[in-house]
Amino acid sequence: MKLLCWLVLLCIPSVGLVATELAQASPINSANTPTPIQNSSRQYVIHAEKIQHYIQQAHTLQLAQRPTWQALMYRNEKGQSDVQYAKYFVSAKGAQDLQAELDANIEALFKASEDNVSVGCQFPARSQWLIQVLEIPAAELPVVHCPDLDDWYSKIKPYKATVIYATDFMGNPSSMFGHTLLRIDPANQKQLNLVSYAINYAATVQSAESWSYAWKGLTGQYPGEYSLMPYYRKVKEYGDFESRDLWEYELNLTEQETQFLVLHIWEMQHVSFPYYFVSDNCAYRILGLLDLVRPELHLAENFKHTAIPIETIKILEQKGLVSQKIYRPALETQLLAQAKQHGAQLAGQAHQVAWSEPTQMSSALAPYTQNDQAKILEMGYDDLYLALTSSKVPATFAQPRLRQLLILRSQIQLDKQREEVSTPEHDPSQGHYAKNVMLATGESQGKGFVEISHRQAYHDLIDPPWGYRLGTQLKFLEGALRYQDDQLKLKQLELLSVNSYNPISPFKNPLSWGFNLGWQQEALDERGQFSQNTQHGVARLTTQAGYSWANAAHNWLCYGQLQSNVQASSALDDGWRIGVGPTVGCQTVWNSNINSLTQLEMPYWSDSHQWNLRLSQQIQYLIWPQHSLNLSYEYQLQNRSDWNEVKLGYRYFFQ
Fold this sequence. Notes:
This is DUF4105 domain-containing protein. InterPro entries: DUF7840, DUF7842, DUF7843, Lnb_N. By secondary structure, this protein is α+β, with helices and mostly antiparallel strands. Helix content is 28%, strand content 31%. It has four domains: 2-144, no CATH class; 160-328, endopeptidase fold (from Nostoc punctiforme), CATH 3.90.1720; 331-410, no CATH class; 431-654, monomeric porin ompg (Porin). The protein contains 17 helices and 21 strands. The longest helix is centred in the middle third of the chain and has 20 residues, at 370-389.
């Protein structure tokens, strides 16, 4: 048997499968790992009976029903392949008949071909798997020549795999829930992983599109494709351009499993799937790749309807796949950490110096000690460089100033003043689950009620904040049913709610914005007037824009905005109304278990020509992970009439 395994290694390396299917394969010495296809020449003749023998053996072993083959074929619930690209299949009916495709692949293994066109060159992962499982001796196979594959594979040098999580980015609909990709690292290059390659799965968009982009992404109208690129490009894109922190979750995949996964990526050239922002997305497809080498874990099966990137990271932890976590802060995170370390006054001066004329920088620094000058110059350089990389200033403006900042800093003989950004106490995988259900009871206008609510995703300002960015709210499909006065009514339906509170810093004054689209019960009578006794349902669209502020510790955040409300209902006089007015609020994280949110709105309604004061207060207490108590109070006042409601609920977060 050992002789047989070494013969197999002469043609195709053992780059690993699941343990149950690797019993016949010899391990690889990482110091002498061969390229995926060996180059030599040999003439041979193989009889059709021998091919039929292996096809029959594959039927006996039921290889077409094995999880690895079905994962390689992207089998769907109908037993067919989801792949639409015809050249992904050897058999003309391979997409519809996975058994026929397996038979055709076995037969193709024995056909001599020109360089780069054999089945072993085009589909190295599936070819290797069939050879290993069927124990086909190398002497019975033609030698294949795959210079294209060999060259590609030799650049990657797969050894370890790491899942990368980029935190949410509200500036792009496809990235509001975060993003995952897979980094492939060579052996013995842990300190040089920036030059490793990363496997990315994303929607392919040909041109810049505005509102249609979100709609097409939600409805699967973009093709999603795998791509391979240097990891440093993604670090620059996420960490510098979009100011997104990165979390690296190193996986305990073996070298052979990592190699097999990479060979499959070669097979996926020109293959695409419909890309859906909330389901068949980056996170779902990365799990599908991991299912190739650990099919017994059934990772992707947990996310058939929605696949939120951070939820997929959590399941990797639960399944014991994560061996190490590394935090890579974005450039803006590093800059804000310097401002916290050195103080707002020096940070503000750094911004002024960086934006001044190069000839005036020295005089602006003169009043400060050398220590403070070094701090100012370091912060100023990072501030201006961040503005340049995010296209906030042109290169003609930034480059001479960056050069002068470096010259001045080089003249100060002091070590760097910045400290390394400390790793947050909680990483995103330790945050609450995206879905939740809440059971509540309360009193509205002196009448008791019970209520049940559910949210499909993702995070509310009042939710436990650990693992999420302060001031970020994204709610998708949240609804509540209320039983009161012997009636069961829909209390609220939030289709989509997005709020991004970006605090003002010494370096910039970003806009805090948001919008809410949904339906809710309003205190209105049948004539559309404010009522203390009845409620009617209204469809609504609310938008906000303004500014927010946070303390250095980022445990409180306050905001002030101008808010517009558009409501439509048959109960309203004209069927619709508009309300515009100020909104202020504060989010506070008191400790690891308690946080609160207070908000005051004051819209001026177009139909009644009156101001409507709306106060809401909420406090959340985390009992234990994924379980919380929520107490809320709401008050409305209009034209000397008011509305009061208090509610206590138990919320459970789940996958």
